[in-house]
Amino acid sequence: MFGLEKPAGQHEPGRSGGLPKMASVGDFNVLSSSIPATKVELSVSCRNLLDRDTFSKSDPICVLYTQAIGNKEWREFGRTEVIDNTLNPDFVRKFIMDYFFEERENLRFDFYDVDSKSPNLSKHDFLGQMFCTLGEIVGSQGSRLEKSIVGIPGKKCGTVIVTAEELGCCRDSVLMQFCANKLDKKDFFGKSDPFLVFHRSNEDGSFTICHKTEVVKNTLNPVWQAFKISVRALCNGDYDRTIKVEVYDWDRDGSHDFIGEFTTSYRELSRGQSQFNVYEVINPKKKGKKKKYVNSGTVTLLSFLIETEVSFLDYIKGGTQINFTVAIDFTASNGNPSQPTSLHYMNPYQLNAYGMALRAVGEIIQDYDSDKMFPALGFGARLPPDGRVSHEFALNGNPQNPYCHGIDGVMEAYYRSLKCVQLYGPTNFAPVINHVARYAASVKDGSQYFVLLIVTDGVISDMAQTKESIVNASKLPMSIIIVGVGPAEFDAMEELDGDVVRISSRGRFAERDIVQFVPFRDYIDRSGNHVLSMARLAKDVLAEIPEQFLSYMRVRGIKPSPAPPPYTPPIHVLQTQI
């Protein structure tokens, strides 16, 4: 909750004056990276709330809770204002939340009829609640979710409408250029070789590096190249947060000499080239020692240009659907499913590694797929009745319609398959990749994007064909996630991942990096907390999807469709707002 926004929970004077400031930045979350993917603003409206007041209508308030990943404990995130005497409130105060595509953020909205100024919720009448995920709101058409309020048996509690709006400052990038004059000479034989290092300040007063310029050799008056940086990375969207810039003289051995530093902020920089953006470079040590010290040179901002980027959420809001397909390895190396040592062992009390990977990834992606129907495939098994080996069979036994309803449907089909196919081999990926690619090739207009999750125990048998399939698929709207389960060596998978060296086949390189591989064993929580394991796995395998998605749209020049018109709630004459 940084920045210019006023967070929910800072209460205005008036009817709700007795309620304290309840919203907080939230407890530190080990899974969250330092820069939120983006911030979204949630607006809440209700229709036909329960009437708990005898002589007038209810006086509703909405309280938002978020859930900790490890222990599932609900924590209050913030409260809206109270609105007097209405069953159809449109709350003015918004909730501003960090949004990560790759994390499942469970939310609970509780509604109360406020009867006094007490901040203690147990002193007020409960009107019901609604559970959802942040992904569900964002993934709904027009990022608008309408759901029934529940929680009071035998009563109709009305409906709640939550809309999500991405905050603009998260999407801006700036193109900046700097030069310097009369920097201190640090080299014995020549002039200095200066470069700049930018740091953004954190909530606790510490600094995090966010950009380094190139080195300009042998000059005390360098002009650096213009560079582009997201406003999020530069100041986390807070225009007044301190930005510290250090000036160094580059040395080959890495022991760069400190010339001096200055501080600024996004708001100051945004004034552009002016007398306000000429900074004295100060070396505190020199300043302390020399009475006549003025500065160690000056740095001047030459240009400042704001560019607004289209975001992943723009496409989702415009109606792009994410289609999720699952492919499971049924080769014999997994071990006999009836034995506890098998990776496919059906333990009645806990998920096996395959089940955990399916649930971890699927439960997040399903929020972005409106029909929640997922094709689920298997490979490497002998199928009844004739025992033929298949590398592309429907887990539900219906090749004409391999779709399963929701992740629960996928899990059901997976367990059903284990009972009726024979684990065999070899481990071929190309058929399932080509299967999804056929669908992706038929919709290249940006209305759909395909994600294939392959869960496998092992060493790939058709490496050349798989590389060829991935190179072909890199031109299509699709991404591939591979989760390796069990103890095998996964060297070949690292090669497919393409993070270090872009994958190629027969001299052709992949147009974009579309494969993300992770070994499941890296995510096993030592304390046996499977919820945490699954959250970490999902975070890592899904983190690259938005960028892979955007790279396809950019290369093809596809712009987001306009979002459906915003919802305008009906006006109620009796409503008074505080």
Automatic annotation (TrEMBL):
Asked whether the keyword Phosphoprotein is assigned, the reply is: yes
UniProt domain C2: residue ranges: 20-147, 156-279
- Residues forming the VWFA domain are 323-524
A GO biological-process term:
cellular response to calcium ion
Name the keywords, alphabetized. Calcium, Metal-binding, Phosphoprotein, Repeat
Which is a Gene Ontology cellular component entry for this protein? Answer: plasma membrane
The molecular function GO annotations come to: calcium-dependent phospholipid binding; metal ion binding
Taxonomically, the superkingdom here is Eukaryota
Cross-referenced InterPro entries: C2_dom, C2_domain_sf, C2B_Copine, Copine, Copine_C, VWF_A, vWFA_dom_sf
CDD domains tied to this protein: C2A_Copine, C2B_Copine, vWA_copine_like
Signal sequence span is none
What does this gene product do?
Probable calcium-dependent phospholipid-binding protein that may play a role in calcium-mediated intracellular processes.
Q: Give the matching PANTHER family.
A: COPINE, COPINE-8
Q: Spell out the family assignment given in the record's similarity comment.
A: Belongs to the copine family.
Its protein name is: Copine-8
Species for this entry: Catharus fuscescens
